[in-house]
Amino acid sequence: MNNSEKKKVTIYSVANEAGVSLATVSRVINDSGLVKQETKEKVEAAIVKLGYRPNAVAQGLALKKTTTIALVVPDSSFLYIGKIINGLLDVAKIYKYNITLHTTSSSINEMSEIIDNIVKSRADGVIIYNESLSKSEGEVLNSFQVPMVYIGHKTTNVSSCNVYVDYSQALYELVGEYLDKGIDDIILVEDRKNPDTINQIISGISRAYEERGKTFDGYVEIPEQYHNSYEFLNKYFSKHKHEVVISMRDSQAVAVLNTCKENGIRVPEDTDVISVLDSRINDMVRPRISSFVIPSYDLGALAMRVMTKMLNGETVKERDYKLNYIYERKASTKN
Amino acid sequence: MNNSEKKKVTIYSVANEAGVSLATVSRVINDSGLVKQETKEKVEAAIVKLGYRPNAVAQGLALKKTTTIALVVPDSSFLYIGKIINGLLDVAKIYKYNITLHTTSSSINEMSEIIDNIVKSRADGVIIYNESLSKSEGEVLNSFQVPMVYIGHKTTNVSSCNVYVDYSQALYELVGEYLDKGIDDIILVEDRKNPDTINQIISGISRAYEERGKTFDGYVEIPEQYHNSYEFLNKYFSKHKHEVVISMRDSQAVAVLNTCKENGIRVPEDTDVISVLDSRINDMVRPRISSFVIPSYDLGALAMRVMTKMLNGETVKERDYKLNYIYERKASTKN
DNA sequence: CAGTAAAATGTAAGCATTTTCAATAATGCT
DNA sequence: AGCATTATTGAAAATGCTTACATTTTACTG
């Protein structure tokens, strides 16, 4: 009726109210200086009086940029993804960027469909978390003429940056310590299929072995057919026993621990268990697991920071940003 | 140099290439019928040839809608939030909506700042997850002239919908069973401060007691000063022992279990432990905890579905959408 | 106080679409 | 063939902003 006719307030309304031209209003909105203090105040008064808020869509059209960046993740329901998102959002906020979220999880969507959607939306940049991009997906992404940063995945895309964790060095140092103590019956339990990732993980371990004239052959791959690692590990530990078991997955850490226990393998008396593990989960587990803590929040924050640099045209000297694990010794290892 | 001059392709380019007017191109893009099959094919050919993708920003301006909805969550690094997001994204995808993510977590942002940002962005709607909205935040939100749906929080905002879980009924039934077996030494452990939420949680329990002529007085509030519930619970269970301990927080479930154990209280022999718990976490715990599983994914999916209805002008008959817990009996309860 | 440089403001042309309305082409009917 | 419809198409206005360029004010200078 009468109170409903919420008159849409545009830059014109404000200009009118303040008795100036819309150009002037635009100038005060964008704080471009060169407007007299007096008129500026008039305009600001009009803005609050009318409750005017610039239409970001129109701005986007006029400026050819949306101050929006697209984030692509495989699935939001992993703790580390959540933390990455937190980091990302916090720095996005600082630089006044909005984030749109896109998943590759549901089978409905090929990466190309998502990218298609993102280019339609004219996001200024895209940040991708993906452990295993297929060749063809990689090519689609390469052809996408927009600043990109990859989290957790090194790529060969020249126009993009990579922010990731240095698995290799962490494992190199840890395994080195064991070897120096004469402990070399170490296995790595993994369910990842992507060769790049696997190689990166194994390379550090192998290097530690090789420098000591030994060879690492403890890679235990969890076969695809097992619908979860629990089942496989239970079977495995009923037959095998090792001095050290390493896993690089949140989801496997506790499985290793429990299946060892269930097969009479004492942790850490018989076997040291080490994993990548979120500390919130670790707090729930007894014994707590000695673990590599991934700086997920920092990954997200850094990725976003790098993105802002790319968008500001600040020269991004380095394409690769390595972050290190923190290793936290807990009760699942003897020392 | 030469390959860089990536000519920007607009609807004009396409019109030109196809030898038609831009109006016609627009018509085929939007599949508005009324264009001859023959020309339609010409246009489509031009589109693929040029690799044209409609500019969603310009569309947004012309159509006065962005097909974007804003999601506000307190913190993305909780499992259930991740699942809510998954559900939301999946149905958003079906209805071709984009999602922008906003956090209230970092101290930097008042809700009003976030809302301000959202209205600038001209999102078509906003979905808010928040366990405890302050009165003033509620008012800011009420004044926001945009379709809203709240997840997990009943509000009095007339122009919005609520999608939430019915804590009350679940607890009513569970506690009723215990009482009928003569077990009435039941406590509820909680760290939430929002009275609405607490009242909702307690009301079901109380009702069960009252219907049997008893009174529930087992509400154990975790004081604010404890930086985590572990510490508090450890102290508590060193002095108290109950027949049944219920918690309604993922984060407390395992803490209850472990602190009981550490204080010589056997679960379930001495005490039944029941909680709200994500099944992925439950799989890591021994004994597994009998728990209410929150349909987080469904909460997100339903919220988004309701939002699409509001945006399509479909009449939304109900303002409240209740979802039920599933109660899963595991090893932490005697039966 | 005229003259000029600098500061402030306004005008109007984009930005890439959609859509109303008018114009044209195609079809059917007699 | 001629006319009335109807199906296609195009022209142009509208969407809400930025900004280059033009114009008007203001402030200085001698």
Characterise this structure.
2 copies of one chain form a homodimer. Chain A has 13 helices and 12 strands. In chain A, helix 1 (11-18) crosses helix 2 (22-29) and helix 5 (79-94) runs parallel beside helix 13 (296-311). The N and C termini of chain A lie far apart (75 Å). Chain A has a 6-stranded parallel beta sheet with strand order 2-1-3-4-5-11, covered by helices on one side. In chain A, strands 7-6-8-9-10-12 form a 6-stranded mixed beta sheet, covered by helices on one side. Chain A is an alpha/beta fold and 335 residues long. In chain A, strand 3, helix 7 (135-142) and strand 4 form a beta-alpha-beta unit. The longest helix of chain A is centred in the middle third of the chain and has 17 residues, at 195-211. Residues 1-5 of chain A have low confidence and may be disordered. Strand 2 (98-103) of chain A pairs antiparallel with strand 2 of chain B, so a sheet runs across the interface. The structure holds a DNA duplex (30 and 30 nucleotides).
Would you kindly provide a brief summary of this structure?
The structure is a homodimer of 335-residue chains. Chain A is α/β, with parallel strands linked by helices and 335 residues long. Chain A contains 13 helices and twelve strands.
